[in-house]
Design a protein that fits this description.
Length: about 240
């Protein structure tokens, strides 16, 4: 009778010998805030691979199609692609035009009526010098108009995106939105107000608004402006 041959590479139980695991190439996914090509690597002549990539301390990244060596895509901690500088700049220009028109429509008639009322109440100014009462009335009128100006701007920059999924009209047209930096947080009025009022304060100093807007060009990894950093927000693309 033929005896079964003994395979020295296996133990009596028939299990394969212990040894190093088969080689599996690692796929780099880039630093935090950058989405790289997950899944198995692709080589010339092979179709793109699809999969999910995770990073320590970060949420699961969305699926990505492409070849190994493709440019890395900057993403938020929630895995959403970040808005580009051009998209954010175009949205700011659109919002500036819309807000200017809104202010003109609301405040211009009030300014004309208020100035006419003050002139009718005090008549011609003798010698070009205002009396004490006239100065107080003019100052109060200016304060009221500035308050209305800031109120309209606040409503457009804070209340509108709070109710419209983080979007003003400009951001809606460019398909981008304001989002919390931390994935587990929700968008709040306080977050948007801090973001807006810091922009207002920086607008009172020369060159600070430009520094604030350009900061995103070298900020890593989330391309935030200074007001984004203060409010812990990012601007992402809308899928």
């Amino acid at each position: 009778m033929t005896q079964p041959s003994h395979d020295p590479s296996s133990d009596p139980a028939g299990n394969p010998p212990a040894g190093p695991a088969p080689f599996a190439p690692e796929v780099p996914v880039g630093p935090p805030g950058v989405l790289g090509p997950p899944g198995r690597p692709s080589f010339p002549g092979q179709p793109p691979q699809r999969g999910h990539a995770t990073q320590p301390g970060h949420a699961t990244q969305p699926a990505w199609d492409g070849y190994a060596g493709a440019p890395l895509m900057p993403v938020s901690p929630a895995g959403k692609p970040l808005a580009s500088f051009g998209e954010r700049l175009a949205a700011v220009i659109i919002d500036g035009v819309v807000l200017t028109l809104a202010i003109v429509v609301v405040l211009l008639p009030l300014t004309v009526l208020g100035a006419a009322g003050i002139g009718a109440a005090f008549g011609d100014v003798d010698g070009g010098v205002l009396s004490g009462a006239e100065v107080i009335v003019v100052v109060l009128f200016v304060l009221v108009m500035v308050t209305l100006l800031l109120g309209v701007s606040h409503a457009y920059s804070v209340e509108l995106p709070l109710r419209q999924d983080g979007q003003t009209l400009g951001k809606k047209l460019l398909r981008i939105q304001i989002a919390p930096l931390a994935p587990q947080e929700t968008r709040t009025r306080g977050m948007l107000a801090k973001r807006y009022w810091l922009q207002v304060l920086m607008g009172m100093a020369p060159f600070l608004p430009y520094l604030d807007g350009l900061w995103q060009l070298w900020d890593k990894p989330y391309q935030q402006c200074l007001h984004d950093k203060a409010a812990s927000t990012v601007v992402v693309k809308v899928s």
